[in-house]
Amino acid sequence: MSLEPLLAHLAPLGPMPPLERWDPPLSGDMDLTIDAEGHWIHEGAPIRRAPLVRLLASVLRREADGHYYLVSPEEKWRIRVVDRPLLIVDADRDEGGDWWLTTQVGERVRLDGDHLLTLSRTPDGARVPELALRHGLSGRLNRPLFYRLVEAAEHRRRGETLALGLASGGHWHPLGCLDADGNEVACD
């Protein structure tokens, strides 16, 4: 399946298309996989053009059936996502103390009640934070950013558990929890 027909429908659109208004019928399955490291692979070859990945990410959504789709006004193609479709690669704090996180495609999101960090398991079983984004999508913190945020994290005691996280947008965003012996435990 060539990406050109899908891209033809998207060329005149701005950076954030109105996916919530588009409801075309399923066109089929596309041989496109987003692997656990966030690489976009089409027909066995990595997509190396960052602008193309940004464009495709702008029309990606996850639907109630749990599948991921690339959507245009006239087409909807199901793709495969191994873990999370996006990676969170950078973070900074604003003057008010809120955290802003940035995906590998340049989308910048403030940590708040609509964009929460939660802990979930990766395909290899590690418990790593993910960020709720738009249209049912989420992004996984990449390893360098995770360690950077752990260094900046606030520590809160919950009984015998030490919770590490970030306060932002009026909410607590967990990065992980440790028991009294320093072992990773679930944050309840």
Automatic annotation (TrEMBL):
InterPro entries: DUF1285, DUF1285_beta_roll_sf, DUF1285_C, DUF1285_N. Residues 17-83, 85-175 form the DUF1285 domain. It holds the Pfam family DUF1285_C. This is DUF1285 domain-containing protein. It comes from Bisbaumannia pacifica.
